[in-house]
Specification:
By secondary structure, the protein is of the alpha/beta class. It is built from 15 helices and 18 strands. A hairpin with a 4-residue loop joins strand 3 (about 15-20) and strand 4. It has a 6-stranded mixed beta sheet, with no helix packed on it. A 4-stranded parallel beta sheet has the order 6-7-8-9, with helices on both faces. Strands 10-11-12-13 form a 4-stranded parallel beta sheet, with helices on both faces. The protein has helices spanning about 80-90, 95-110, 135-150, 180-195, 215-225, 240-250, 255-260, 275-285, 295-300, 305-315, 330-345, 360-370, 370-375, 410-415, 440-455; strands at about 5, 10-15, 15-20, 25-30, 45-50, 50-55, 115-120, 150-160, 200-205, 230-235, 265-270, 290, 315-320, 350-355, 355-360, 390-395, 420-425, 430-435. Helix 2 runs parallel beside helix 3, helix 2 (about 95-110) crosses helix 15 (about 440-455) and helix 12 (about 360-370) crosses helix 14 (about 410-415). It starts with a strand and ends with a helix. The structure holds zinc ion.
């Protein structure tokens, strides 16, 4: 058994955990001697695998390449970053998409991420035409997830307009959704393809209110509701999106989504950076999740999430690595709390009560695990019988954790530990990272670097 096991919001000594290798689910967590098939992990603490609820894997390619601006540009922002991202997206062949995705998923597994919500909007060829198999690139992402061994919810992205009632720009031609019927037929085909894969499933993702006509929202919601799959959408990441919504629809984005009936327990609002008090209350009443991506949001200068207000209202906050500016769920989680501290000039803002004290670590661990599982509708995110055996072993001997005890580990892990303390990772009971290493690591890195060299040959 591990030295410490995370269960019911705290680390416990002396718990044995066993899983069924056939079904990939946990069968036993309890006190006492290890039973047959129990996980043996001296010097390790066992936690549920992290769930990365919002990712664009191909954007891993531009990490480190957008941290500059021309001397004559007064400012760089989300919109100038987006131009660089579009330029890279236009270069990728199907092989490239698979290689970049595979490398990105291996990096996620190394960071303890066992499930990913891949918000996939690259659909067409470089000229903007549909591939002979319209699911060509989606299948490549599924193959990359299968090879890496990560659990995936492939969120099929609908992207039809370049702004509210505006045509797409030529740079957006690979994302184009031609019409709603074709899009939903593709989604049905994708669901069948994912069902044939291990550890894969689908969801829908109207990209944003900028990119999807208002009268498509209800049929997209109905498709997701009928299949009980996640419905994700970028919401209020930028203040320009909010003002366009007010100008064209006479209401703010969350108000519009409520009006169209999209907000329910299957819905996740990604970012939700620019919310009014009224929008916070609207989200709270519906069971919708907010997915924060604070490492990306700080990189892009998007603004601060109203995390404490959302938590107080009862809204679950999941986390995503989004643009892959870093792949580190500990970092994403602690930024949610640290951004609140910086703004409020206070410490220990978002808390759970544990043994008579209010602690910051447990709610952050919940965001990185159970809230993500809720957002992707997975029976993951906690170590309990019946849940999938998606697990991460933390090295208690790592220097960043020296001196920890059962009572301090949740805070130390979530607020201060290095991501390298993640040493072993299982997905559905299958070991994918052993002592920090993935078997595909060298090959995946080589393929990724070859793509990067070619795409950026002139820069
Ligand atoms: Zn995104």
């Amino acid at each position: 058994m591990p030295d410490l096991t995370y269960r019911d919001g705290a680390f416990h000594e002396g718990l044995a955990l066993a899983y069924d290798a056939g079904t990939g689910t946990i069968t036993h967590v309890g006190a006492g001697a290890a039973t047959d098939g129990a996980v043996r992990l001296p010097g390790r603490a066992l936690i549920p695998g992290f769930v990365n609820a919002h990712s664009h894997a191909f954007q891993r390619l531009i990490r480190g390449r957008t941290q500059w601006r021309p001397p004559d540009a007064t400012a760089a922002d989300f919109w100038s970053w987006r131009e660089a991202m579009y330029a890279a997206a236009l270069e990728l062949s199907p092989d490239d998409v698979e290689h970049v995705s595979r490398f990105c998923f291996v990096e996620m597994l190394q960071a303890g991420i066992t499930a990913v919500g891949e918000f996939h909007y690259l659909h067409n060829d470089r000229d903007g035409a549909r591939y002979a198999d319209p699911l060509e690139l989606s299948r490549r992402v599924l193959a990359a997830a299968r090879d890496a061994g990560i659990r995936i919810r492939l969120l099929h992205v609908c992207y039809a307009t370049g702004g509210i009632r505006q045509p797409l720009s030529p740079e957006q031609r690979r994302f184009t959704t031609a019409d709603l019927d074709t899009f939903l037929a593709d989604a049905d085909a994708l669901a069948a393809a994912a069902a044939a894969e291990p550890r894969a499933g689908v969801g829908l993702a109207p990209h944003s209110i900028r990119a999807v006509p208002r009268d498509w929202l209800v049929p997209l919601h109905e498709w997701a509701a009928a299949r009980d799959v996640p419905l994700h959408m970028h919401v209020s990441e930028q203040s320009a999106e909010v003002s366009a919504s007010v100008e064209k629809y006479g209401m703010r984005p969350v108000e519009l989504l409520r009006e169209e009936g999209l907000l329910d327990e299957r819905f996740t609002a990604v970012h939700a950076t620019h919310l009014t008090n009224f929008e916070v209350r609207l989200l709270a009443g519906t069971g919708a999740t907010v997915c924060a991506c604070p490492a990306t949001e700080r990189d892009l200068g998007d603004g601060f999430l109203r995390a404490a207000d959302l938590v107080e209202a009862g809204v679950a906050i999941a986390l995503g690595t989004d643009s892959q500016t870093v792949i580190d769920m500990l970092e994403e989680a602690r930024l949610v709390e640290y951004h609140e501290r910086l703004q409020r000039m206070r410490r220990v803002v978002i808390t759970d009560a544990v043994a008579g004290r209010l602690h910051a670590g447990p709610p952050l661990l919940r965001m990185a695990t159970a809230a993500g599982a809720r957002s992707l509708r997975l029976s993951a995110g906690s170590l309990e019988p019946g849940a999938v055996a998606d697990m991460v072993a933390i090295d208690l001997g790592h220097p960043s954790l020296a001196g920890c005890s059962a009572g301090t580990l949740a805070d130390a892990l979530m607020l201060t530990a290095a991501s390298a303390a993640v040493r072993d990772v299982w997905v559905g009971g299958r070991a994918v990272i052993a002592d920090g290493t993935h078997t595909l690591q060298e090959a995946a890195t080589r393929d990724f670097e070859r793509v990067a060299r070619r795409v950026f040959a002139n820069s």
